[in-house]
Description:
By secondary structure, this protein is an alpha/beta fold. The chain has two domains: 2-201, Rossmann fold (3-Layer(aba) Sandwich), CATH 3.40.50.1170; 219-340. Helix content is 30%, strand content 16%. The protein has ten helices and 13 strands. The chain has helices at 29-39, 65-79, 96-106, 130-142, 192-195, 198-201, 265-275, 292-304, 316-329, 333-340; strands spanning 2-8, 15-17, 23-25, 48-52, 86-90, 114-117, 149-154, 161-165, 185-186, 222-225, 243-246, 278-281, 308-310. The protein has a seven-stranded mixed β-sheet, with helices on both faces. A four-stranded parallel β-sheet has the order 10-11-12-13, with helices on both faces. Strands 2-3 form a two-stranded antiparallel ribbon.
Amino acid sequence: MxxxxxxxxxxxxxxxxxxxxxxxxxxxxxxxxxxxxxxSDSRYCDCVEFNMTENLCILSENLTVYKWNRVLDTYKKxxxxxxxxxxxxxxxxxxxxxSAALFxxxxxxxxxxxxxxxxxxRLELPKTNGNANFRxxxxxxxxxxxxxxxxxxxxxxxxxxxxxxxxRLEQCKNYTEDLHSVGAIDITNxxxxxxxxxxxxxxxxxxxxxxxxxxxxxxxSVLMITPYVGINYGAYDYKRxxxxxxxxxxxxxxxxxxxxxxxxxxxxxxxCSALGVxxxxxxxxxxxxxxxxxxDISKFRTENGKRIGFLYGMTNEAAYAKLxxxxxxxxxxxxxxxxxxxxxxxxxxxx
Length: 351
């Protein structure tokens, strides 16, 4: 008999509709998930015992850094009470990739498999993938998948069930209900051979864990900025943060025109450096064949001693999660820098 902890975070997978057609989180969600699994034709229906946490009733779009602390505290409280063979977080899709990236860092040392499962429609609807996602996660645990943090998700466009390493999951794009990641495994026809492919896709060993999750309290310390035409860097209150994560256009670039104006990223870097706030530019690299705009950013750093780092080879969701953990946990700059540039759980897919 496998024993699985079910952490009820919230999201569509935990919702029901009221008489006015409004979706809200349901207290019955966990029971419904388990009952639907028990009624399925899975060969593991009678081989699993589920222990459920209290329902945190968080629609994932309403997640904050402080609510992440609440989710993690709930997990830590319940995981200590028993010996489990796996953990399932029932979570909404809107911020799934961010939680997946965060949990992959904090739970990198897990000795049991941890899954985040979600749904694109409420469980009682025939079109939902929630029951299938839940079942796939349970079956992966029962078939002995290697301990790590994962997401199992059935894409709606083609019906494929994909197994994702959590640290590589990307946000679901607008106007689609599919999730993607680098190195995802198709487990539509799930079996032990399929789930064990994960060890061939990720042959490297995980690096030693550099944080103690029991001593970690996340702080709202990182500002994430997405570039767009006409951005005004004078509109932000940078002094509230310890670090800035600045995204890029698809070529790894950002605007450097009018270098002293509030429209240039160089203004941002200069302003933050004066405040002692670290800046990170991602995904982008300052070596090899690069655009002159990126070269301008690199030269500005070198020639003026500005606080700007380049992050390349991981998703922006993973970069944000990593910086959030780093600036919440480490006090000294050397340990912080080492953690950011050390791969902990396969988040760097271009190394």
